[in-house]
Amino acid sequence: MKLRLLWVLVAGLFLAADDEAVKKEYKNFTGTWKFVSLEVDGVNVGIEAVKEARLIIKGNEFSMKSPEGTHKGTYKVDLSKKPKQIDIVFTEGPEKDKTLLGIYELDGDTYKVCIAMENNKNRPMEFASKPGSGHVLEVLKREKP
User: 21-35: per-residue pLDDT in tens?
Assistant: First the structure.
């Protein structure tokens, strides 16, 4: 019984540490991001198509503002995976109720993400958008306040 209680306490400490790491990661995402490059299903989309779009992140919530409209939602990250994983859930806008699965790298003011375009399908395993893959590869830079 004592061993089991000890195991529960140790497991709780690891979960708390993971929770703190995730909170820190969400804080690292906070800001307004602009697109640097965009590749969809293996096709490089000209930056002109997304130059006005902005991704605004606070905590685990986001809004994407573009000439086409506003998308809102939440996201969650899994720091234990290599590469890190992200699940994006749309709560408002044309993509409402869709969940997109992806991988990401966050390095200072550069955010690189590769996501599957289809709802809950084919999480990418590499940062690539090949023809027929159904993957989107985005690179964004944080705007300075």
Answer: 999 999 999 999 999
The one-letter code for the residue type at 81 is K
What is the C-alpha separation between 8 and 2, in angstroms, rounded?
10
Length of the chain: 145
Q: Which helix (H) or strand (E) covers residue 14, if one does?
A: helix 2-29
Q: What is the mean pLDDT of residues 35-64?
A: 92
Which residue from 131, 66, 122, 124 is spatially nearest to 94, judged by alpha carbons?
66
Whether residue 50 is predicted with pLDDT greater than 80 in this model: the reply is yes
Check: pTM over 0.90? Answer yes or no: no
Per-residue burial over 103-127, b = 16 or more CB atoms within 10 Å of its CB, e = otherwise? bbebeeeebbbbbbeeeeeebbeeb
Give residue limits of the domains in the chain.
2-142
Lowest mean pLDDT across 30-34, 78-82, 120-124: 120-124
Number of other CB atoms surrounding residue 19 within 10 Å: 10
CA–CA dist 19, 143 (Å, integer): 27
Q: Per the structure block, which two tokens stand in for 133?
A: 């893959």
**CATH entry 2.40.128.280 includes domain 2-142:** yes
